[in-house]
Structures are given as C-alpha cells and as structure tokens.
Amino acid sequence: MxxxxxxxxxxxxxxxxxxxxxxxxxxxxxxxxxxxxxxxKYLGVDVIWLSPIYKSPNDDNGYDISxxxxxxxxxGTMEDFDEMLSQAHKRGLRIIMDLVVNHTSDEHKWxxxxxxxxxxxxRDYYIWRDGKDAKTPPNNWGSCFGGSAWQYDETTGxxxxxxxxxxxxxxxxxxxxxxxxxxxxxTWWCDKGIDGFxxxxxxxxxxxxxxxxxxxxxxxxxxxxxCVHGPNIHKxxxxxxxxxxxxxxxxxxxxxxxxxxxxxxxYAGEDGRELNMVFHFEHVxxxxxxxxxxxxxxxxxxxxxxxxxxxxxxxxxxxxxxxWDNHDQPRAVSRFGDDREQYRDISAKMLATxxxxxxxxxYIYQGEELGMTNYPFxxxxxxxxxxxxxxxxxxxxxxxxxxxxxxxxxxxxxxDNARTPVQWDDSDQAGFTSGTPxxxxxxxxxxxxxxxxxxxxxxxxxxxxxxIALRKENPIMVYGRYEPMLEDSEExxxxxxxxxxxxxxxxxxxxxxxxxxTIPEEFVGSSCLIANMEDDYNKAVMTLKPYExxxxxx
Length: 554
Ligand code: TEU
Ligand code: CA
Known about the structure:
20 strands; binds 1-O-alpha-D-glucopyranosyl-D-fructose; alpha/beta; 16% strand; single chain; five-stranded antiparallel sheet; binds calcium ion; 16 helices
C-alpha cells in the first residue's frame, strides 16, 4: 500500500462562523482562526479543513456561494486569508478548502444571468425544466431542506433544480463551460498555495438526463436516487483530477452521500485517478419514524457491522475517512457516547480511542477534542440552521406531528448542536466573542473549555493530543491491517491491527455497565499503548468499567 502524508495526517475541521470571533460582531472570522493556530499546533493536528469562507448570502451558512474567489464579508478579507494561510504554513499546518460546486447561491452572477432568459449564455449553467403543468414540478424529487427540489421561476415560466435550499440552484455539470469555470477557479486556489479540497456532495454533480419520479422523498436528508452517482460522475472527477488535482501535492476528500464500499473503490481508489478518500454516512444516517429526526441511539452490533465492513472492504483498495461528527451532525459524545456528567469525559475518550485506532484518516470536528456536547435547545427560536427551521415548520407547525413527539428528535439531531461557539474559556461567551454570538454558547462552557483542558493532563484535550502523537510514532495505526473481534457483542467494540511483526488490540466498552472481557492469550501482559483509565492488563480475565477503553500492543 503506498504511503502518503494524507494517510498519516489528522485533520481538524473548522466551522469558521463558530470558531473564534476577532472583532466582536458575534460571528467567527478568519483573523479569529489565525489567533488560534498555536492551539491547533499544540493539539498536534496536521491539516485544517475550513468550511466555506467564500462570499455568500448565508442561506445555508456559506454552502451557498455567490463568488468563489472572494471572502465572505463577515469573515474578513482576502488579505486576512493570505495571512492565515502563511501563518498556518509557518507552523507546518496545511489548509484544505471546502469546494461547494454541486450548486451555487442564487445570487451568483452565473445564476443571475441564467434566470434572465432562455437564450442567455449562462442558461445551461443550471438545470431548467418545464413543469408537468404550470402548477406541477417536473418530478417528485424532494429538497434535503424540505419541499420540492424544484422552484418555479416567473421570468421564463420554468422550474430550476435545487437539491438543497431554493437559494442553492444545482449547477449543470453536463455543460463543459461549467466544468471549465470550476476547474479554473480550483486552479486559482491551488496556485495561492492551499493544500487541497473537501468536496461538498460531490456524488451529486452528475444527474440522470431523464430525471424520472423517484421514491417520494418524504423525509429530510433524503434525495432521489437519480441524483447521486449519476452516469458521468467518474468521468467528471477524472477530468477534474487530470486538469487540476494531479498538478499539485494536495489532498482531496469527497463528501459522497449514498456511497457504498464498491463505489468508494472508484471514488477513492489506490489508483489515484479521482479523489484520495471519501466520507460515507452509513454510520450517521440512521433514520427513524421521522426520517433523520430520530433520538434513538445505534444498537452497537449494527454500528460495528457498518464500520467493520468499511474497514475490511477498503483495505489495500481505497482509503477511509474516519469521523464521528462534523457541522451537520450532533456532537459525538452526546450521540455515540454518554454526555451525563459522570460519563462525558470517559466516554469521549473511549470514542476517540475507537476511531483513532481504525484504519483511515481521522477527522476531529472543532470542540470534539474538548468533549463538547449537544445544546439544550428550549424552543424553535433557538435554531439557526435552515434545515432545522424548515423541518420544525413542516413537521410541527403544520400539525403533522405534535411538538412533544417531535421535539426530542429534532433537538437530538439538529445540525445546530455542532454549530454553537467553540468554548475557549470560562469568561463571558466562553471567550468566543466580546459581543453577542450569532448562536448561543452552550451553558456548560464553565466546565468544558480549552483553557481548563489544556492545563489538565487528564482532560479529553490531552487524550486527543496523545492519540495524535501515537499516530506519528506508530505506523501500525496508519497502515496496520484491521480485523474485527467479538462482532456479536452489544457492549464491546474490539479489533486488532497488524503490521509486520507488530499487533495491537483495541478494546472499547460502549456501555455504562461493568462488562467482562478476556484478553486473548497473545496479548496478556503486553504493553499498554493508551487507556482512558488505570487498569491491570496482566490478568487475562477482566471486568471493564463503564466506557473503559484501552489499547495493548505486542
Ligand atoms: O451536506 C450534504 C448533506 O447530505 C447534508 O445535508 C446531510 O445529509 C444532512 O445535513 C444530514 O442531516 C453538505 C454540507 O455538509 C451541508 O452543510 C450543506 O447544507 C449541504 O451539503 C448543501 O451544501
Ligand atoms: Ca467576527
């Protein structure tokens, strides 16, 4: 298996709006990021993935771009960006940008032109169709943010496609001019010295021409099967690779909703003809009675089946991205761990152990290294995210579901859980801003904050720092072959990694119960690489404490 820097790296995702505010307007910004680079260097991460910082009306917090080569007003200037990039590189930190090219903002000049007339030169930059009749959209596709995926436009009496908000019209990638303009823009950013791209819903850029009705999209986060992994997806990604990506020492990760291990071998194959790695969503897309709006936790055997499958299927063929959360997901410790006072710290460390001992590039979402938790939403007025606001309207305000039934589901899964400000210290607004934050700070910031944790050697922060350091010292964590164990256990997540004559055993108790475990003979008495509590590994038969995690290596 070829060895590369992006396989050995640990990546830290920054959601700039909520990371650090430098000018007191309550909104995170680029100068704020620059002021925290030393913190990230100290944590030990190698690459920073920046969620979008381009000019945007912020209908979807920057995932609706109106100018790909200008910086969002609230975030600062291009000079601020250049300074941040240079300061990051001085610290040996790489910066990858969020490439959002499945769609633009409806305020992008391309769309402003496209909607003017049917014969405008930019008309075919987007996907326009006649309705079935004046009142009926071309098909039954749903938008991920609710309602139809088609918006009627009076000027030319046609509908345009938007798989997300109506202010996010989908680009027509079948148009070679679109591909050329996108590739030119990517080249411009690469020539500025960035180190790669995370590619937003890149599996959606090729749609089937026919666009027939799909299974009626009744739930949020659903999209028609006709708009993922379309007929030209690999052709376009290979063109992108050939014309841009292959010319630079950069890394790429595709956000590929709907991807399977088979497709991942094409998107992120070792042949390097498309992308370096992809995010799959099988472990975070569990749906319940209201689609994604569900407050049920995974049955561990189901979660293990998914993650074991991705580990074993991709080995030697493609590269995994490893994550528990991001800006679209609830906080990891609240969803997969246990954010009750007595278990938050220990279960956050257990989750970190489990993820960082798997094969793939680990992603740390801002605040995950502190064990930040979901937010205690009190009312729909607390939401800022278009997805949550629309969902509450569509499910509750419409009377379809009672507030009592729906509230636990939407508050558990709302993307706003991950978008509350990073908790830097115990001062007012957790040191995020000297003003009023655009979204409320989690009231638990007095106990959970970077200032306290960087000083406490037993904090979640220092546990992540140790895991990251171990990855640099132990190639087995990067290149070792993964083998699952105890797949039927509903309590323990256990697996080994093997590289040359070394072998490690990772054991994680995902429950709040004492759980018996027998250390395999070959590991009894081996050295302990890391553990989230004191224990004796010299005796074969053990009783693991709630959320106990340890790694032995021989
Ligand atoms: O997310 C795409 C996507 O699939 C998410 O909408 C996800 O399915 C959903 O949020 C789960 O609840 C990307 C970005 O990460 C997201 O922030 C954007 O809203 C979206 O694309 C549109 O750009
Ligand atoms: Ca600001």
